[in-house]
Amino acid sequence: MSRIASMPVAAMVVVCLISTMVKPVGAVEDLVLKANGPNFSFLVLGDWGMGTKQQLNVAEAMNKEAGTMPDSLFVLNVGDNFYHDGRDSEGHKMGGVSDVNDPLWKEYFEDVYNGDHLRKLPFISILGNHDYMGNLSAQMHGLRNPRFVIPDRNYVTRVVDEKTGEKLATFVHIDTTPVAGIYRDKPENPTMGVNLDNLDDGDTFGWLNRTLARVADNKGYKFVVGHHQVVSMYGSETSHKQAHLHESMDNVRKILEHHRVDAYFNGHLHALEHRTLNDVSYIVSGGGGKNKDYPVQQLDEVIAGWAAGADGVKGGFATVSVDLAKGEANIRYLDSHGKELFRPKLYAPRSTLSPLQLNQQPKQLPRSLRIGVA
Question: Which stretch is the leader sequence (predicted)?
Fold first, then answer.
């Protein structure tokens, strides 16, 4: 069974990641996952750590789906890993975990994603804005659970064919909360303010640009992973916050397009979405556990041409199956009971196609399903 480098996960991650704790942001070595041939699959999950019935249902459906995917390598976790429903003694919102011994680790992660098939997969993870309301270090470096992988705020994962050494895909993971433009002036709690104080916005954009240039010659798909949306059918913020978020994340869009990235994965929106813009696919999978009752006025903000609806969907996730030999990657969106909702596709990696070939690819209807209140 495939693992990071030649896992076991525990030994590999603890040894490699603890040594990176004092390195600058983005200075860790690339993670390497080995596939048994030119095909591999992964699951995509976001916005999950809430302890709801929805989270449990999604986890069960993911476990069943992983059992049908013998080439599955990992779960791509797009952030907002631990929520809190209450406030502290001073009335501040709470989020994230307090430390490596926080009971939420067991309650929301270890006792939930522990099915026979799912427990074998590492969670290749990033931080979300709710995680910034807690102890960031407690989620990083495999200190609590080596299956939960965040080697740094920004890092790279490469998937290679174990038999041939061919690069099948490169994932560039970025921490979008410091650059989202909506938290610095009004952090969601004091801990978030402290966590953001010493972080440089421009460093993330610069690191992303440099890293995509570094991996430009890598064969296979090029993916970027962040928590916040770059484009979407609707926003999850107020109009003022949404304007700042769009302005900041538009810098990411420009970098993705410049470097011919194939797809951007995110959560933050508690929705399941797919859209292609300027040849970049945007894959939203934010239905892991946190319900969201979207206000009625947002229904008027739907972009013309989007197929919206199914507001009764109570959670969900996505799967991606890459077949580099065929030059395609099939995406499936599933609800919390494993029912397929829609199935878009990625075609051959953009770096291998001419402008004419790109233009000849079939156009796909944008889809968006809001996650309703259970």
Answer: 1-27
223 domain residue, yes or no: yes
Residue 206: CB partners within 8 Å, gap ≥ 6? none
Angle between helices 201-214 and 239-258 (to 10 degrees): 30
What confidence tens digit (pLDDT) does each residue in 233-279 have?
654 444 455 556 778 888 999 999 999 999 999 999 888 889 898 99
If 0-12 CB within 10 Å is exposed, 13-18 middle and 19+ buried, where does residue 80 land?
buried
Q: At a CB cut-off of 8 Å and minimum separation 6, what does 193 contact?
A: 187
Q: What is the pLDDT of residues 39-80, one digit of tens each?
A: 999 999 999 999 989 999 999 999 999 999 999 999 999 999
Report the domain count for the chain.
Answer: 1
Q: Are 287 and 43 in contact (CB under 8 A)?
A: no
